[in-house]
Write a structure and sequence with these properties.
By secondary structure, the protein is mostly helical. The protein contains three helices and no strands. The longest helix is centred in the C-terminal third of the chain and has 32 residues, at about 40-70. It is rod-shaped.
Length: about 70
C-alpha cells in the first residue's frame, strides 16, 4: 500500500533507512534492538513501496506520452 507521503520525502526516508540499518545491525548492542523493533521488515516494506511508486510513475508517464502523441 502506498502511503500519503510525497515521493521525494519517502525516498529520503528510505535512503536514511538504507544507510543506518546495516551499521546498526552490525553493532553488538543495537543489532538485537533493531531486529526486535522490526526495522528489517519495515525496510523491506519500504523497498516494495518504492518499487510500486516507480511503476506508477512510469505508467503515468506512458499515459501522458500516449495522450500527447494522439493529440
Amino acid at each position: 500500500m502506498i502511503s500519503d507521503e510525497d515521493d521525494a520525502s519517502f525516498k529520503a526516508r528510505l535512503d536514511r533507512m538504507e544507510r543506518r540499518t546495516p551499521s546498526l545491525l552490525a553493532h553488538p548492542h543495537y543489532g538485537p534492538l533493531v531486529r526486535a523493533a522490526g526495522d528489517l521488515e519495515r525496510l523491506e516494506e519500504m523497498r516494495v513501496e518504492w518499487r510500486e511508486r516507480q511503476e506508477r510513475a512510469r505508467a503515468r508517464k506512458l499515459r501522458w506520452e500516449a495522450s500527447i502523441s494522439e493529440g
